[in-house]
Design goal:
Order of helices and strands: EEEEHEHEHEHEHHEHEEEH
Radius of gyration: 18 Å
Number of strands: 12
Largest sheet: 8 strands, mixed
Number of helices: 8
Shape: globular
Distance between the termini: 26 Å
Length: 275
């Protein structure tokens, strides 16, 4: 999709622009944030707009699960935003998990972030128990497999042409993690008063919310994100809970102003990350 005149969600990171894939809004080289750096040459999915938005917006807690952690970006952003949190990232791509672990170990948050290589459908055993035992705070969350915040930038292509890169296909197509399986996993792993946050493109919002309802979730927060004011939202950030929570929040935000600069909203939620 072509970019609007002057639009760049990474304007503050101009040195990286030559490595930007404008079609996917992903950076192809390494990416440095204020407190950590993401190396991603072995990861199918690169640092992109969706991951940065979700990591800056999602609700946190004392134990956080990142489903489909990829490079480790969102796990590290959540660890930075919530200094008391223990974060577990899971992904089924062994190469991505290996590189995410390296990114974690090179960060200031290495003692609070763990990366597990497994499918969500298989997650919930020894890896969770080990992390829970290491957590010395939040006694009510020491039970294995319980998280009070879960985040995911999930696969979203449902019926589209698949990329010949099998790992990229796995990361982007719902074959590897159908929405219903995602919500079933979240229901199993989320505490009763926990919150699940995700980001999805506008094309699948209705289906995503419908699947959440089938599994007994309530949509409690919805944020549409436009690139520029004259455009319609192209992605939505959504938060779900197991119980109805009032008041329900719904709003639309814009990433760039009419001059092509970051909007006040986008600047505010990302200022602790971008150099």
């Amino acid at each position: 999709m072509p970019w609007a005149r002057g639009f760049c969600p990474y304007r503050a990171c101009g040195a990286y622009m030559r490595n930007l894939n404008k079609e996917t809004e992903e950076f192809m080289g390494n990416f440095r944030f204020k407190q950590f750096e993401i190396e991603q040459d072995r990861c199918a999915m690169k640092v992109g707009t969706d991951g940065v938005l979700l990591g800056a917006w999602a609700q946190g807690g004392r134990r956080i699960l990142d489903i489909g952690s990829g490079t480790g970006l969102i796990s590290l952003m959540m660890a930075q935003r919530f200094p008391e949190a223990e974060v577990v990232g899971i992904d089924m791509d062994a190469d991505a998990c290996g590189q995410a672990r390296e990114n974690v170990m090179a960060s200031p948050f290495r003692d609070r972030v763990e990366i597990e290589c497994c499918r969500l459908q298989d997650f919930g055993g020894a890896g969770v128990s080990k992390t829970a035992e290491a957590l010395e705070t939040a006694e009510g969350l020491k039970a294995a497999g319980v998280f009070d915040a879960i985040v995911s930038n999930p696969p979203f292509f449902v019926d589209s042409l698949k990329n010949p890169d099998s790992k990229r296909t796995m990361a982007r197509h719902t074959d590897s993690l159908p929405f219903r399986d995602l919500f079933a996993g979240v229901k199993r792993l989320l505490s009763d008063d926990g919150v699940f946050s995700a980001i999805v493109p506008v094309e699948v919002v209705e289906q995503f919310v419908a699947e959440s309802c089938i599994l007994g979730f309530y949509l409690i927060r919805k944020c549409g994100v436009k690139t520029v004011e004259r455009k319609q939202p192209k992605r939505f950030m959504l938060s779900f809970a197991k119980h109805r929570i009032s008041p329900y929040e719904e709003h639309v935000e814009t990433m760039m102003d009419s001059q092509g600069n970051r909007s006040e909203w986008y600047r505010k939620i990302t200022e602790e990350f971008y150099l």
